[in-house]
Design goal:
This protein has one domain. It contains four helices and no strands.
């Protein structure tokens, strides 16, 4: 996969978890604040839509939305 595809994959995984929990960026910002992470909803929107967030941010989001398990479906052979 090319870098653009990795970015799309990462943002789609996070977006799908947010959709599954019916959480928008404003709500995510509030939930992050509750766990000590100050991240305005505008920054969240930019990070997620660019797909350029860190894995730490991803984990913080998962903690904030109380997601303990996710299934990753990444192309089986990334070397094609």
């Amino acid at each position: 996969m090319h870098e653009k595809e990795w970015k799309n994959t990462s943002k789609n995984i996070l977006k799908s978890e947010l959709r599954r929990k019916n959480i928008d960026y404003n709500q995510l910002s509030e939930k992050l604040t509750k766990i000590g992470i100050d991240e305005p909803s505008q920054n969240i929107n930019s990070k997620i839509n660019r797909g350029t967030f860190s894995f730490i941010f991803f984990l913080q989001c998962m903690e904030a939305i109380e997601t303990n398990n996710i299934t990753l479906r990444i192309r089986e052979n990334i070397n094609e």
